[in-house]
Design brief:
The structure holds 2 protein chains of 2 kinds.
Chain A (H helix, E strand, L loop, with lengths): L3 H18 L8 H6 L6 H12 L2 H13 L6 H27 L4 H8 L3 H33 L6 H19 L1 H31 L2 H11 L13 H15 L3 H8 L5 H13 L2 H13 L13 H9 L2 H35 L8 H25 L3 H14 L2 H7 L8 H20 L4 H4 L5 H4 L4 H19 L9
Helix pairs in contact in A: 1-8, 1-9, 1-16, 3-9, 3-12, 3-13, 4-14, 5-11, 5-13, 6-7, 7-8, 7-16, 7-17, 7-18, 8-9, 8-16, 8-17, 9-10, 9-14, 9-16, 10-14, 11-18, 12-16, 14-15, 16-17, 18-20, 20-23
Chain B lengths: L8 H13 L12 H23 L11
Classes of the chains: A mainly alpha, B mainly alpha.
């Protein structure tokens, strides 16, 4: 028993309590459960959107990348900023359309815009493929954090089970309201912890942030900039752009759009959320501070750099606070994923096949699916092995394939037909599967290309193919139906 | 989109093109490697420009958001 354990346990209990309390005074029908009755104000939407973005990946992965890769890490700051820039223009019309049609899920949006139930089913399947690995990543992160911060007193497996049970319980009781309320606690803690670590560690070990960077630059010249090949400037620009476009296409992030009570919420958040991303800077600083202090971590272990340096710097109670924060970074997005995943299975895979389904039966079904989905994710986490990293890469690349069909649906005259949209998504997803599973890069596919072009993110190929097929099929089918936008 | 809203493209371009021209560590700016400092500057500029766009957008002055 050490001081860290009760602090982590307390955070879990408080999160559960907040999650359960969030229900009080609200009737949990489908609309309340999935999208908070479309009644969230600027602050709750801010926390939900920040909550989904600040996941265990940001916490462990952001510092881990800074530690392991150096300069290329900066792309995380850029893509998250760009995500909110584009949100100013794309979220208000999407929100308005969803409100008019009373939509619950991301596939609902595509099905309604293109007036095609099969497109809805396709988008739901793509969404599941992307969500499950994302959830598994959160659970894996949670296991690592709790095991490390409890000094081994709790095994990763036990931590994963406890985490999954807690979030399933409050998801079933309070729905997205529970996520929003736990997000309040999470953001408060992460803000404090990350800024403290990002300032304290460089000063403690190097005497300042500038001194730290000078020391790293001296020991590893070029580490703090981009390499000439591989993760070069071309890689940086193409990856930033692709991930920024794909960001809103994750089903749980898309669904958070629906929770807003007013379109102005998004425009206001587009002002503040970029500034909020500067918190990442302190995550980077913490990761960089570990470079010369806990050298030698390689492979997946780089994600442990933050905790390794914390363990050798701080007393157990403070490690407990960092651990508790880490647990919350897994619970909040985990709960959003669970809600979005269950909603899209019930609403977009089951409902189109069951003719007499109502909002009430679909809502009950979604809540019933949540524990099953959580169980499946725990199974993948414990027995999925390393293939999950592969799946996650696919997940990211796969959701980006929904972007063309989405962005063109916002135009007054959508150039894409429903067949074109479907064919484009299918072609893009197939291209992703082949290139990512096969481990292809542009350098391998086209050895003749000039160096910088070879460094382009391979996702560019899938997206280009997606667009080409979508337009070709739409043009060929023109004269048939054209998606009219009301 | 109104003319002023295109300003939002500036920091985005700065982020995407910056690494081609400013990919270096020295000199440190505010204690940070030059490239990182540039990207942080772009992020701050993004918020400032989005604030300007928000304040000048007539859509945000209507009492109730209508379709």
């Amino acid at each position: 028993m050490n001081a860290a354990l009760p602090i982590i346990a307390l955070a879990v209990v408080v999160a559960l309590g907040l999650g359960l309390r969030a229900r009080s005074g609200h009737d949990m029908d489908m609309e309340q459960w999935s999208v908070g009755k479309r009644g969230f104000g600027t602050l709750l939407v801010f926390l939900l959107m920040a909550g989904e973005i600040y996941t265990t990946f940001t916490f462990l992965g952001g510092s881990g990348w800074a530690y392991g890769k150096g300069g290329p890490t900066y792309y995380i700051l850029c893509y998250l900023t760009l995500i909110y820039v584009i949100s100013y223009w794309i979220l208000p019309p999407a929100w308005r359309f969803a409100k008019e049609r009373n939509l619950f899920s991301q596939p609902d949006y595509f099905a309604a815009r293109y007036d095609s139930r099969s497109l809805g089913i396709l988008v739901a399947l793509v969404g599941i493929v992307a969500l499950v690995p994302y959830m598994v990543l959160q659970l894996k992160g949670l296991g690592i954090i709790v095991a490390t911060a409890s000094y081994g007193a709790i095994s990763p497996t036990l931590a994963i089970w406890i985490g999954a049970v807690v979030l399933t319980v409050y998801v079933m009781v309070s729905g997205v309201r529970g996520s929003a309320w736990t997000a309040v606690l999470k953001d408060f803690m992460i803000l404090f912890v990350v800024i403290f670590l990002g300032i304290y560690l460089p000063y403690h070990y190097y005497g300042g942030i500038g001194a730290m960077f000078t020391a790293i630059d001296g020991a590893k010249p070029g580490f703090l900039a981009l390499p000439d090949r591989g993760q070069s400037a071309t890689w940086f620009a193409s990856t930033t752009l692709l991930t920024a476009l794909g960001g809103w296409m994750f089903p749980h992030i898309f669904a958070s759009i629906y929770t807003a009570s007013d379109a102005r919420t998004f425009r206001r958040n587009a002002v503040f959320l970029p500034l909020y991303q500067l918190m990442l800077l302190f995550v980077f600083f913490a990761g960089f501070s570990a470079v010369l202090q806990v050298p030698g971590l390689t492979g997946p272990d780089v994600d442990l750099s933050l905790f390794k340096i914390a363990l050798q710097t701080f007393p157990p109670w403070f490690v407990g606070i960092i651990g508790a924060t880490g647990v919350l970074t897994a619970l909040v997005p985990g709960s959003m994923i669970l809600i979005a995943g269950s909603t899209l299975i019930a609403q977009n895979l089951y409902r189109p096949l069951a003719r007499n389904a109502t909002d009430a039966t679909t809502g009950r079904l979604a809540k019933g699916i949540a524990p099953l989905l959580a169980l499946a994710c725990v199974g993948f986490t414990l027995y999925g092995g390393e293939t999950i990293v592969q799946l996650l890469l696919i997940g990211y690349a796969v959701v980006t394939q929904l972007f063309p069909a989405f962005i063109f649906s916002l135009m007054p005259n959508n150039p894409l037909t429903r067949a074109g949209a479907m064919a484009g998504i299918l072609a893009g997803v197939a291209a992703v599967a082949v290139t990512v599973v096969g481990g292809y890069t542009l350098a391998k596919l086209f050895p003749g290309l000039p160096g910088p072009v070879q460094d382009l993110n391979i996702g560019v190929v899938a997206l280009a193919l997606n667009l080409a097929v979508a337009f070709a099929v739409s043009l060929a089918g023109r004269g048939g139906q054209r998606t009219a936008i009301p | 989109m109104k003319l002023i809203q295109w300003l939002a493209a500036l920091p985005a371009l700065g982020m995407l093109a910056g690494p081609f021209f400013l990919n270096r560590v020295e000199p440190l700016v505010l204690g940070m490697p030059l490239l990182l400092a540039w990207l942080v500057g772009c992020t701050v500029a993004t918020s400032a420009i989005m604030a300007l766009i928000y304040l000048t957008d007539p859509a945000n002055r209507e009492p109730e958001e209508g379709p």
